[in-house]
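tool_call: predict_structure(chain=1)
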Amino acid sequence: MEKKNKEKGKLSVGRRFGALGMAVAMALTAAACGSTEQTEESAKKEWIYVPEFITLEDERASFYNMKLAGENLYYISWNWNEETEEQTQDFCRYSLADRAMTSNTIVWPEEGDYNLDEYTVGADGRLYAMVRVYSEDYSSSKQYLAGFDAEGKNVFYKEISDRLGEEYVQQICVDEQGRLYLAGRDQIWLFDGEGNYRNTISLASAGDVWLDKVGCSRDGKAYAAYNSYSGNGSSSLIAEIDYDGGKLGEAIEGFPGNDFGPGLETDFLVEDSKGVYEYDLNKKQKNLVMEWLDSDINGDTVRSFGMLEDGRLVAVIEDWENNDSSIALLTKTRASELPQKETIVVATVGGEYNLRAAAVKFNRSSEKYHITVRSYLDYDNMSENSYADAITKLNNDLTSSNCPDILDLSGLNLNQLASKGIIEDLNGYLDKSSALNRSDFLENVLDAYTIDGKLMTIPAHFYLQTIVGKKSDLGDKEGWTLQEMVDYADAHPEAELFDGESRAYIMQTMMMFNEDAFVDWSTGECKFDTDEFKALLEFVKRFPEEIEREEGGDSEPTRIQNGEVLLSRAHFSDFDNIQTYPGMFGEEIVCIGYPTADGTGGHAMNTGDAYAITTKSKQKEGAWEFIESILCQGENERFWNGYPTRKSELDKMLEEATKVEYVLDENGNPMLDENGEKIPSNGTSSIGFEDGWSYTFHIPTQEEADLVLDLMEKAKAIPYSGEDEIMKIITEEAEAFYKGQKSVDEVANVIQSRIHIYVSENR
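tool_result:
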């Protein structure tokens, strides 16, 4: 490994680590096929919704709040007139039938500073909007309900400030009779089609309620979907709005989403990040219509959706990750009529967001393969056992014919997976890659994820976690054992070890790098009945079961400086974070790390976008292509924050972080402060707490950057997720000891027995 080059202050990771036109594009999505063993996803689907992506070349187009009414899409655009220095708004309509755009400037009834907050469009093309009008000095404002015809001319304009009070209208709905429904947090205000007030419906009687959406069903009636919260959790409900009676009808529980619209054959269409469903009110049943990924769409980027009378689906997409703002027209097509692609199944436990974005980008570019995502965490039916159930189902699939091709390693125990022999060695793929070289990556990252000579994964990015404290207390030593941390706590009985942490957090801290000291996955040996683990239980028992934070209490930095807290958990995702901690402790710090069995520095490398290929995959080459596509992303393409594992990208990040820019005058020359110094224009952001403690950042220094790079060299992969079955067993059984119901020996023996059985069955 080459040494750092500090000539001229150069920071180098490489050295350190060796008029509106329409553009229309048709995208044909392939049906899954090609696998000799049938999986859940490779079972051939009879129908696929094929997307036609329509790109608006209007830079003013607002995809975020675009509305579908009939066969037209509507949006409001802002325009600035340089000559008059006035701002106007246009009411824009794009016809999906004839692909024509019309635009009309909204004509306000009088002069004023208007802000159109929320709007909807009726079947006749009328625009109904909530408008806020500000006073000249912006010290106050009034709220109006306004109506405009299809040409943007004002039809009615009525102040409703007194009706709303301090409430905010989040959305407007118009039913088939042209009646208006204004929805707030837990209230619905009813108006007729001319803006006359009729009634108010309050949902407060239903308890702690959050109104998700007001919309219409297939028969044109208005409904309210809302969540009701209580001590036992929350319930999703929907109820018809009785306009004439000024009340809600009977609430139906279990409504499956907060984004809905009228269905074609059923009451509603409901959308979530996975796909579109039909929902029947009488049967209280939802049926999947289509999955977004089958149509090369990331469901997280769908801003609005609906169905045309001919059965085509419409999705308005605003995808910042892939720089894609477009309209998708989706036509139901027999899968047998489409070009076929090989299906690659990626399994994940709760990591769908980044994965869907990467899958869409890959699917649109690949002519041979199609990524589909299999999620094991059921967000619709979450319980305290959901995570454990998801892991169990995944483990079962890994040893069956339903084995996925790729594993998203987020939240999984890598040592456990390695012991099973189910992870493909990526060394050969990396060596043969024409796009990547081993030297492209930080050496420590590849080493951290190499187990028994096998490269299990190559993460795309990572974060750093460590523990920091006062150098005056801890000295220069980087690293300590469990016992040394206990001794440090004992030496300062007047202070908390961390700021307000419960037993569960302390146990996770102690086990972060010590699980492998008590479990050997390669042999199945467990050591939870030892004196070392019993001493750990005794230590954790000192901490409270739960933490109740006082409102308005002191912040962590203040408590540290008052001598009430000894250590802080540090999280680094850029080159600025390191500055906070000397400011927090008020003196020089040391990154001592999490305790480890041998006392070496326990600096954690927490990765993202880390994928592994399963040994049972029938699509290993395609799986590598997908992983390779993620690893090859540049800074402007990536779907995450944190440190990139490719040295060239990390160099760019470091260069950007340490670049100093100055405030310039009208001639482009740096301006000077009262001391004659140039005034930096960047690096001056700050953080603050309610108790008054704050810190203002500066451009990272050479020393600060070197400290972060040094931590990268020493960081280790976190061997477990903190939520795995071993931690679950420890937490469950230790409770009896903490509460004095069992002795430490009894509890240690039970933990030893349960974990030994679990390891034997899962290695």
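agent: The longest helix spans residues 744-762. Proceeding to next step.
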